[in-house]
Amino acid sequence: MKKVKENKNRIYFEGDLDENVLVFFLKKISDGNYFSNKFKSNLKIILIELITNAITHYHNLAFGKVLVEKNGDHYLISVTNFISQKNLQLLKKNLIYFKSLKEVKSQYHALLKSATLEKSAGLGLLEIYNRAKGNVQLQTQTVSGNKIITIKIKIYE
After folding, report:
1. Residue 116, Ramachandran bin (φ over 0: left; ψ between -120 and 50: alpha; else beta)
2. Of 71, 45, 72, 16, whose CA–CA distance to 132 is shortest?
3. What's 34's DSSP letter?
4. Quick one: pLDDT band at residue 1, thresholds 50, 70, 90?
5. How many domains is the chain built from?
């Protein structure tokens, strides 16, 4: 079951997260006249990272929600999905570390050098954090014993 709602200020998806959801959002953003080209690029990269992470790190359940919404002078992007306790702790730890950094770019290059195909280096989250200028929030809850995470990003055009 999936639900899609959209208007000129909002695109919302609820259902199983997969590559088709990513393609849907990228197409809507690319084809829409609501954003400047520079902003489209930034928005698409953030969504690629968020949705790919949700698909890759969900915890046995692919269900999730994706929202892109204009809210006054900024846009809110949020992705909600199931996550394992281990991945949740790693995500929280990385975000706390990124918030402590004075120079994000040098850390990005260091992580890039240490990344392998087998081991995630946290590059996606750091990319999101950098592009959102630190406006990243995590919210968690537990439903029927499953951890659910919502990552909220605020970006300005």
Report:
1. beta
2. 45
3. S
4. low
5. 1
Query: Residue 145's domain is classified under what CATH number?
Result: 3.30.565.10
Q: What is the mean pLDDT of residues 42-66?
A: 85
pTM of the model: 0.84
Instruction: Return contacts of 138-147, CB within 8 angstroms, 24+ apart.
Output: 138/91, 138/92, 138/95, 140/88, 146/59, 146/61, 146/82, 147/59, 147/82, 147/83, 147/84, 147/85, 147/88
Mean pLDDT in residue range 96-119? 69
Q: Which domain range does residue 17 map to?
A: 3-156
Which H helix or E strand runs over 93? helix 85-100
Structure tokens at 155: 């970006």
